[in-house]
Write a structure and sequence with these properties.
Elements lengths: L2 E15 L7 E15 L3 E5 L6 H8 L7 E6 L2 E2 L6 H8 L2 E4 L3 H4 L6 H11 L7 H8 L16 H13 L5 E5 L7 H18 L2 E6 L2 H7 L2 E6 L2 E6 L10 H9 L4
Parallel strand pairs: 3-8, 3-9, 6-7, 7-8
Antiparallel strand pairs: 1-2, 1-4, 4-5, 9-10
GO molecular function: ATP binding; ATP hydrolysis activity
Protein name: ABC transporter domain-containing protein
Organism: Acetobacterium bakii
């Protein structure tokens, strides 16, 4: 399959100056010489504990921060070489994100219609009927367009976040811990919804989680990340002894019901 996103030897270092020592500093290597590619239409899972560098990787891929070294290629464009927001704008339209906390990512003063169509306004695109169609796409009623986030449950708010991400018909969506704040039943419903949307729109999805069970069930390939490094990428998890020692620990800690 043709790669849509390529990370080539990407490194991001955060420098922290010690206020007690003028010349000494402590460097935190958040992303360490990472290389991988994700195909068009692929659901790619990224698994790792808190602080392993997942969020930094997301911010790099979205162009919100620049790496210290390496290339990030979206289709054929190396976004690390783009010098202005105007140059980045055509790429920005092709990528969207859904975050963990829907309560903080949705404006409580806006109706669902305004929330979903806001990306269209930003790019001066037609809005007529889009919110209604997308609400139905994510399993909500089109008649809800005038409701506000406070009138919805956590799972329903996350569906609205997904609808907003779909508004620009992006090539890929990054889902950063998108089910972590949900109960088990609602999380399963959101995963089933994402599978249907992937089938319908054939978009690439980067699904980031610390839950190896959810990623194993949902994603076509899975990458294990620790201390800023990708330890291994697999299509399926086999017997623990076939994997990296850290992956073995994750598999052995997996909860079976």
């Amino acid at each position: 399959m043709e790669a849509l996103v390529k990370m080539n030897k990407v490194t991001k270092i955060y420098k922290k100056t010690n206020p007690g020592l003028r010349k000494n500093s402590v460097n935190n290597i958040a992303v360490d010489d990472i290389s991988f590619a994700i195909a068009r239409g692929e659901i790619f899972g990224l698994i790792g504990e808190s602080g392993c560098g997942k969020t930094t990787l997301v911010n790099l891929m979205l162009g919100l921060i620049k790496p210290d070294r390496g290339e990030i290629v979206i289709d054929t464009v190396d976004i690390t070489k783009l010098k202005s927001n105007r140059e980045f704008l055509p790429i920005r339209k092709r990528m969207q994100a859904v975050f963990q906390n829907s309560s903080s990512s949705l404006n409580p003063q806006m109706t669902l219609k305004k929330i979903i169509t806001e990306p269209l306004k930003n790019f001066h695109l037609p809005e007529q009927g889009v919110a209604e169609e997308l609400l139905e796409d994510v399993g909500l009623s089109a008649s809800w367009i005038l409701r506000k986030p406070a009138q919805l449950s956590g799972g329903q708010r996350q569906r609205v976040s997904i609808a907003r991400a779909l508004a620009l018909k992006p090539d890929f969506i990054i889902l950063d811990e998108a089910t972590s704040n949900l109960d088990v039943i609602t999380s399963k419903q959101i995963i089933d919804l994402l599978k249907k949307l992937n089938d319908k729109y054939k978009m690439m999805m980067l699904f980031i989680s610390h839950d190896i069970g959810v990623v194993d069930d949902f994603c076509h390939r899975k990458a294990i990340m620790k201390n800023g490094e990708i330890l291994e990428i697999v299509k399926q998890f086999g017997p623990p002894e076939n994997h990296h020692p850290y992956t073995q620990k994750l598999l052995q800690a997996r909860l079976h019901i």
